[in-house]
């Protein structure tokens, strides 16, 4: 309904008011700032795409369209963080439009009138309309609402008709992009040779011993680095040291902590509300009106815990009793009331190990079934279900031991749910369960629970009052007024006991300084108005005032030894190179890993019995792709690699054995795997390539 309301309400004078208000809301004080067109500035270009300048007006118009879609989808106005995302979405939409328009034209791609009609009123209504036009009683898409709305457009005013035309264009553009992406995705193909290599990489296993000699095993005093070497190294490795435009800042933060008086006032206020909550007959409505909690009235499903702050303070809460107020970790006062307890639909908790069979032939499925039976036997023998899940599981749950959390029966496919909900005890179900996804080995971890609770949460944020904020601002303003350069900035901070913080490599689009959120205005000041050594005015953030000093500027270009960060990085890399050479020289001719460890006591010897060819890490060592590659270049038991330099140190490996990947009759599974993975990446990779070729230049940081 939000879509219809937006259209119906955009009439007459209201449209002008809304449009002007929207622009002021979107750009805030920028409209009267140094980049304002109203004040006559000629700086009206927010970027460049494929050689075409993007004007401020065009970009703001696209922001307005994106913001309106956000409101339609969410039913609320965007927050400041939402607006940041909306601006990025609008920019990406412009890039897509400018870059892909010629692609669509060259390929002859279009959305016909018949197709568009089908999208907005035919058999294949697009998702955005379906979400907006729902029956409030059933929650389902209501076609009658859509028909009524479309019929009303014939007699609608021009603004409403123009708005709908804009929506239709957006729907068509979206469909064109889907067509383009689908065309690219289905063009992916993997050869049988690629599939064989994928199978070989995944199933060739080496049993190895290895020694890791970290760089700290060699004292820094044994390697000498001079500036000439650093300059040469940076010059030869500019691909590593290219720099983007950035700023360095130093700043003093004046936190807005509530005073004792603020705390007492908040406590009095919430105690008054608690008294009303105890007497009200409509708990949910009361907390929705009066609570500042994100979700003031919640349903706690079977198995789920009550809010932690509640259970930390109350052992056995009773229905109908108000508990609190308690001070929360987020500096607020909170009170809780269980308004209802009842027996709801049952939930259970389980873990699983999934061995996928999607897209496989019957023969391949049988191989997977046999493997699953072996895993089930291993789990029953060892009892290490979580370890087996991490080793064999083929979905995202493997990273958490196969845990699926609490769930209702309807949350899962029938075969899986029936197996779990028929269990009478916890533990591993001693049979495989087959679903459309593959074979599951299931462990029931919690039996059925049905207790459902409804909880009213009354929360008031403990914030600094206007009086407190004014006191803090006066301190910050006095500091800023008396600090005109780096020397006075430091001297005044030391005199008053203020801590000076530093933020380096701040980019033009940054919205934070270290962990200081909402700092966009400070960043804009640093890039648009400040010169090195200049001290800012007082910036107001949500929880603090900030006074900043621009300490340095870095322009886009080649890296230099004059950049402290680049010099430090290059120095460390040079040291590591020299330490690696020292280590290699010292262990040359040694025939055992133990002998190498005697030479470098800080080194560690480990073993890996099941290292796979497609691995990039050595367990217990770290990221070591060159070492893994060298290991699979060995052939004989007892053969050792040469010393291999990695980012983490020097590695030498000794081969115990290699088990080659077994031959299989059909590599279709691996072809599908390669194709699917490539298809998922294609759209993104094409977008990145076209954006680079189009020479996109982003100047939005000057305005937003």
From TrEMBL:
Domain PpiC: 345-446
Membrane protein topology class: Single-pass type II membrane protein
Compartment annotation: Cell inner membrane
UniProt-listed InterPro entries: PPIase_dom_sf, PPIase_PpiC, PpiD_chaperone, Trigger_fact/SurA_dom_sf
Chief place of localization: membrane
Residue ranges of the TM segments: 12-33
Entry's Gene Ontology molecular function annotations: isomerase activity
Keyword Zinc found: no
Keywords: Cell inner membrane, Cell membrane, Chaperone, Isomerase, Membrane, Rotamase, Transmembrane, Transmembrane helix
Superkingdom field: Bacteria
Gene3D superfamilies, per the entry: 3.10.50.40
UniProt record similarity statement: Belongs to the PpiD chaperone family.
Protein name: Periplasmic chaperone PpiD
The species this protein was found in: Cyclobacterium plantarum
Upper lineage: Bacteria, Pseudomonadati, Bacteroidota, Cytophagia, Cytophagales
